[in-house]
């Protein structure tokens, strides 16, 4: 018999909010929309800036209307979970190049570009499109400080631009990762995947056995489409390089 799906994931609740109140971070970033208003007001009362991800103009406008201080324009290229929350339509998702300027035109709050940005050229392009900042993910997974498994790191180093796909097999929600056996044979998107966040629990026995044998066949290997732009730098060095190279492009010659 298949195992009963379980998950250690939980929504942003009062206990998590209490942690924010105690630690008082400068920024609190949400995904899949925003928590209920009472919790959001508690976060705001700490003085934290509130941001969240939008995958469409409609979502960005909704986030602004519900009190976000900035919005992350998350293009189709981005690795990890899609932040979509007003729609579940995979085939209408928008790429970063098209999404960022449209969101910039639609909202008054700062826009943070995300998805496919992995070097100074991408940073510069985002600013030309009107973004106020960028959010970089996959490029930092190559840094020695990144807490990724040895199997994940190996997959990152061999993956090319065309070897990622959106899948719902690992959590029940769409997320972009490096294609592996389970994605090829069962998906990558399947109507049989348990609802979020239970799908991952259903795969855990297979994943555990495969990883013992040095295989990532059943492991989520989150990465974006810019995975082919590989860096061998520490996080501080990468951050400095991204900024310096973008400034060289944007500075008048």
UniProtKB/TrEMBL annotation:
UniProt-recorded Gene Ontology molecular function terms: dioxygenase activity; nitronate monooxygenase activity
SUPFAM superfamilies listed in its UniProt record: Inosine monophosphate dehydrogenase (IMPDH)
Highest taxon of the lineage: Bacteria
Named cofactor requirement(s): FMN
Alphabetically ordered keywords of this record: Detoxification, Dioxygenase, Flavoprotein, FMN, Monooxygenase, Oxidoreductase
Entry's Gene Ontology BP terms: response to toxic substance
Reactions mediated catalytically: 3 propionate 3-nitronate + 3 O2 + H2O = 3 3-oxopropanoate + 2 nitrate + nitrite + H2O2 + 3 H(+)
Pfam families, per database record: NMO
Family: Belongs to the nitronate monooxygenase family. NMO class I subfamily.
Protein name (record): Propionate 3-nitronate monooxygenase
